[in-house]
Each structure stands twice: as C-alpha cells, then as structure tokens.
Amino acid sequence: xxxxxxxxxxxxxxxxxxxxxxxxxxxxxxxxxxxxxxxxxxxxxxxxxxxxxxxxxxxxxxxxxxxxxxxxxxxxxxxxxxxxxxxxxxxxxxxxxxxxxxxxxxxxxxxxxxxxxxxxxxxxxxxxxxxxxxxxxxxxxxxxxxxxxxxxxxxxxxxxxxxxxxxxxxxxxxxxxxxxxxxxxxxxxxxxxxxxxxxxxxxxxxxxxxxxxxxxxxxxxxxxxxxxxxxxxxxxxxxxxxxxxxxxxxxxxxxxxxxxxxxxxxxxxxxxxxxxxxxxxxxxxxxxxxxxxxxxxxxxxxxxxxxxxxxxxxxxxxxxxxxxxxxxxxxxxxxxxxxxxxxxxxxxxxxxxxxxxxxxxxxxxx
Length: 366
Ligand SMILES: [Zn+2]
Description:
Strands 1-2-3-4-5-6-7-8 form an 8-stranded parallel sheet, with helices on both faces. It is built from 18 helices and 8 strands. Helix 2 (17-24) crosses helix 16 and helix 6 packs parallel to helix 8. The chain has a single domain, classed as TIM Barrel (Alpha-Beta Barrel). With 366 residues, the protein is of the alpha/beta class. The protein has helices at residues 9-14, 17-24, 40-50, 55-62, 72-82, 86-101, 114-121, 125-143, 159-171, 195-203, 219-227, 244-253, 264-269, 275-278, 280-286, 305-314, 320-333, 338-359, and strands at residues 27-33, 105-112, 146-154, 179-183, 207-212, 233-236, 256-259, 290-293.
C-alpha cells in the first residue's frame, strides 16, 4: 500500500507543493534534444544573422495552443538555415545547461543530430562536437551540472549517413560523448534500416538508445530496437505494452524507458477527459516497467523538467515511493560509472526524504 502526497498547510499556502517538491528534487535528464531546448530570444538573434526563417515563423513555433504541436519544423529550420558556426552550438549548449540546472537537473545526456548541421554548415563533426563538449565542461565548472552529448541519427536521412556519423564519432572520440540515439519521424525511417550504424557504434564501445514506439507506431519497432539494434535504453517505447511477451522481457531485463509525459501525440489523439487515464505511461507504471520522465523539447513544447515530474504525480497518480523509484530509474538508465551512480543514489535518497518531510510532513516516511 503506497501513501499519497499530503502537503503541509505552509506548502499549500505557497502554491503547488508538488511543483516545489519536483523542482527541488535532484534530477537527471536523459531524453532532451538540444535544438528543442533553444531559447526564443536566441532563435530570433541567430536567425537575424542567417535568414531562412521569419520572425513570425519563429514566434509560431513557440506559440502554444490548447494542444501542443510538433517541434520538427523548428528543428529543421535551425539545421538547414540558422546554425552556421561552432559558437552557435556552444551557445545553445550553455543556455540549455543553465536552464536545466535552474530546475535542479544535475546530470543530462542530450541529443543532437550532426548530419544536417554538418551538411549545411560545411563544418566538420569534430569541430562542432568540440564546441558542444567545451560548453558542457564550462557549465560543469561554473554551474555544477554534468552534460553529456548523445549524437542522434537523423532517421529521415539515408542509412549510410548514420554509418558515416558513427564513423565521425569513432574518429573524434571524447569521453563526454558516451553513446548514440536515433530520432526524427519514426514512420519515415524504420529501425532495422540502421542495423549497421548500431553495430558499428557497439563495436566502438558506444552506448545506444533509440526512439521507438512513438507516434503510435507498433510494438514491433520496440522489439527491433531491442533485438536487432541491441539498445541499452529506449526512448518513449509506449507501444511495447501492446505485446505482453515483449513487455515481460523488457520488465525482467530492467530496461529503462525515457518517457515524455507531455508528448504531443497522445495530447492530440486521446480525448481530454480520458487522456490521463488511457495514457500508456499510466499502464507502463502499473506493469512495473522502469520509466523516467523527461522534457524532450522543453522550449518548443513549453515544458520544464519540473513540470514533467509534476505530471507524474498530478496526471498519472504517482505516490512518493513511485516517484523515488523514478529517480532511481534515471540513475540506472544514465550512462555513468557505477561509483558515481551509487554516490548519487545515496545522496539523492537523503535529499528526497528531506524534501518529503519539508513539503509533505504528514506523509509517512518511506
Ligand atoms: Zn525525443
């Protein structure tokens, strides 16, 4: 029997105790796209120099109606027209890490697609990687957040471009770049097309994750990511639960799913009054899958890490013990050495208990 969060009168008087708690909680973020974290002012400033996208178009990307829209047009505009210098990548990384740190994210692995920017900027992967890694090292020194780059395959580009990307990474290997991912529209690039790139990545000692089972695409894509790409982690993965046998394999293996509570597909397709009840995240929790909440494209989707965590309580009914399990899942899924994982787990457990006492003193200790 798990208890629910019981806030103190003080916390209620301050506003939402759940948000304050989720804000203060030490967090990892293991599913965020660098370009989807761009600040609106920065987008305008860079686009004034480059052209290729109008002021009105940029503002349209950040306009949020009742139902959030996809981030892809904004990401493509940045790749195709706007990002032209190593400094641009440095700035985006620095600002993302500042924004994440402001929500007590202490460790993040963030995605960036090299293929389009290399093609359109004429700069080499190594130069762009160095700019991002330098920004991460500077932010770690200045702000106390650890940032790790995860180059992601653009699945809408030919599979050979993915093989090329892994080759660039192997030739310019940095310890701050621990693995690869794959993203963009899953329906336009089935996972099995990228078997060679994933095999090359594993041979080079890189970790792997993949966006699979997003946009309502079938569980078979999650199975392919697991069995053919042999991923260490799964991004989204919602439709895995449509196959009980696959679900059980993933549960037994302790696979970590980086879920996105504000994912626009379910906001668009599920009825508002049923949304939180029918959402696969709720069923993934009930089935015992190891999930971890993330912001994905925080500025373009108008969501913060704090809000993503608060949604786990407010929308999907997580009790304190479940929220602590989410924190552990993030540490288990992060590509960090065992010593750091164990140290953070001990420290963060203590902080969790302290925050629970502070914001929810009537909640029984875990
Ligand atoms: Zn994503």
